[in-house]
Design goal:
322 residues; 6-stranded parallel β-sheet; 15 strands
Length: 322
């Protein structure tokens, strides 16, 4: 998954500031691709750029085409062959081909539609941007393309004309328990594209010295979770071993649509946890969503390896492999 970037927001700002802007989006790739389908580059009418469509292979040509497209007010569908030599220069083993759709904001990509997309992203609302490259029809679609949204997979539909750009909110990880495993898991998750938050009302654990630069909430877990909000792009990991701390957050997660719930503890601990959740009125299908003991069984020893097992299991669940 690409890290969440601000290309639509930047394009809207530059357009509204009067300099003009175009969004260039990778719509198809063959061979070795430095950037995945859906990656975006913003080109301002004054020549400023932000983002990337190829890691440097074809940016120069895309910028020239985009500036012309802004002047003409027309979309352009570009195709580039990247030589093995150029690919090697940006760290790839071999070359390939990419297609890039350039859409000037305003005359091609309507400003109200882009503003709606930006608002949806700010509200953590998953949305798909749909464009027919033959007819030019554009739309924002909600509650469709479920598989694409789950897999973060932009691309062409089977008709070869309808391109769908997935705009998911950033993945979020909520960790209850500022313990040693959390100290290893949080930076790993950040590398994997998650926006982490740590919840622990115990001051000795929840200190900025233990988690420098991270978001730490010292409220009681059910209050903290309510403040953060839970949605389908959220994973929650329970690490305290203390039902008084874990269970309030667990109950909130079971009642929400988070994609992953993991809880630390032995098989015996998990059995007791299941009984508590049954007593609290949760159904077996709800309770079966709890991954406990947490993490893939990779023989992990020590906090760092346990963190690897947890992140691997989160990824497997997110991508439909577990």
């Amino acid at each position: 998954m690409e890290r969440f970037d601000n290309s639509p927001e930047t394009a809207l700002d530059w357009h509204r500031n009067g300099s003009g802007a175009a969004l260039a989006t990778v719509v198809e790739t063959w061979g070795s691709a430095p950037r995945r389908v859906g990656s975006q580059l913003v080109i301002g009418g004054d020549g400023r750029i932000e983002g990337s469509v190829s890691g440097g292979c074809v940016e120069g040509a895309v910028i020239v085409e985009a500036l012309e497209a802004i002047d003409e007010g027309e979309a352009r569908l570009l195709e580039f062959g990247v030589s093995d030599e150029d690919a090697f220069a940006v760290g790839l083993a071999c070359g390939g081909t990419i297609r890039v759709l350039v859409e000037p904001v305003g005359k091609v990509l309507p400003e109200p539609m882009l503003a709606e997309l930006v608002a949806a992203r700010a509200a953590r609302e998953p949305v798909a941007y749909e464009v027919n490259i033959d007819t030019g029809h554009r739309a924002l679609r909600r509650n469709v393309y479920a598989e694409r949204l789950r897999m973060d997979r932009s691309g062409f539909e089977e008709d070869g004309q309808t391109f769908v750009a997935v705009h998911n909110p950033p993945l979020r990880l909520i960790v209850v328990g500022a313990v040693h495993i959390a100290q290893a898991l949080v930076p790993m998750a950040r590398i994997a594209g998650y926006d982490p938050a740590i919840i622990d009302p115990r001051d000795a654990f929840a200190s900025s010295a233990r988690f420098p630069g991270e978001s730490i909430l010292t409220d009681w877990p059910d209050e903290a979770v309510a403040n953060l909000g839970l949605d389908a792009r959220t994973a929650i990991v329970l690490l305290t071993h203390d039902p008084k701390l874990d269970d309030p957050a667990l109950q909130a997660a079971l009642g929400a649509g988070v994609f992953y719930i993991g809880a630390l503890g032995s098989t015996r601990t998990q059995a007791k946890r299941v009984e508590r959740m049954k007593a609290a009125g949760f159904t077996e299908p709800q309770i079966s969503r709890i991954h406990g003991p947490i993490g893939l069984d990779i023989g992990a020893a020590g906090p760092s390896e346990i963190a690897v097992a947890i992140l691997a299991q989160m990824t497997a669940v997110l991508r439909g492999k577990a």
